[in-house]
Automatic annotation (TrEMBL):
GO terms for molecular function: hydrolase activity. It comes from Azospirillum brasilense. Pfam families: DLH (PF01738). This is Carboxymethylenebutenolidase. InterPro entries: AB_hydrolase_fold, Dienelactn_hydro, Dienelactone_hydrolase-like. Residues 24-227 form the Dienelactone hydrolase domain. It comes from the Bacteria. Coiled coil: none annotated. Signal peptide: none annotated.
Length: 228
């Protein structure tokens, strides 16, 4: 499968984690000059069309981008729809892949991206929680998390890299108190609130908010430009 965004070349590749596990990953490369490298962490819906378009979009902005298929440890080739059945199955798969295993596979992705300057990480939904965990455990240039539902359970973790957090003010899955506590306990992390709900960046969801998605993308690109 290839990317569809003009100015990128997207394709599937394979990674091998430190424990020997082999997984697939979607990689998109900029056609022109490379500005930096970015690892994308999936939602609970797998490496679906939305995540591939996210990769293609950042590649079009000049970033070599990789999205490891973290659910390969439980089931290969997962691409779930944004409906009730997709949510249920996604939650089941999420429960079968530990954060530790996910970080092991993220580390394999970072090694694949390589480069003397390293890579940043950006995660969405479940992936936002993984990105937050990576900020304190893995050598990443920066960590960006979109509506990471599990971050509130990991507030004791201390990021060792610049962090940018995007939350929706009307996200029923994540209380606003999480953002408030993040600001209090981690003032070095940049936390933004948007007039939107959970999944506001995904144009396949009813909760998609184009204005909030565009603003969050501009802020994310600003951080990437600052660290590369």
């Amino acid at each position: 499968m290839t990317g569809t965004t003009t100015g990128t070349t997207g394709a599937w590749t394979h990674l091998t984690a430190s424990d020997g596990h082999r997984l697939t990953a979607y990689e998109a490369r900029p056609v022109g000059a490379e500005k930096g490298r970015l690892l994308i962490v999936q939602e609970i819906f797998g490496i679906n069309g939305h995540i591939r378009r996210v990769c293609d979009g950042y590649a079009a902005d000049g970033y070599r981008t990789l999205a490891p298929a973290l659910f390969d440890r439980a089931e290969r080739g997962v691409e779930l729809p944004y409906d009730e059945a997709g949510v249920q199955r996604g939650r089941e798969l999420m429960g079968s892949v530990s954060v530790e295993d996910a970080l092991t596979d993220v580390a394999a992705g970072l090694a694949h991206l390589g480069g003397a300057e390293g890579a940043a990480i950006a995660g969405y939904c479940w992936g936002g929680t993984i990105a937050w965990a990576a900020a304190s455990r893995l050598p990443v240039r920066a960590a960006i998390a979109y509506y990471g539902g599990g971050i509130g359970n990991r507030l004791d973790e201390v990021p060792r890299t610049p962090v940018l957090l995007h939350f929706g003010e009307t996200d029923h899955a994540i209380p606003l108190t999480v953002a408030e506590e993040l600001r209090q306990r981690h003032p070095g992390a940049i936390t933004h609130l948007y007039p939107a709900g959970h999944g506001f960046n995904c144009d396949e969801r009813a909760s998609y908010d184009a204005a909030s998605a565009a603003l969050a993308k501009r802020r994310t690109l600003g951080l990437l430009q600052a660290v590369f």
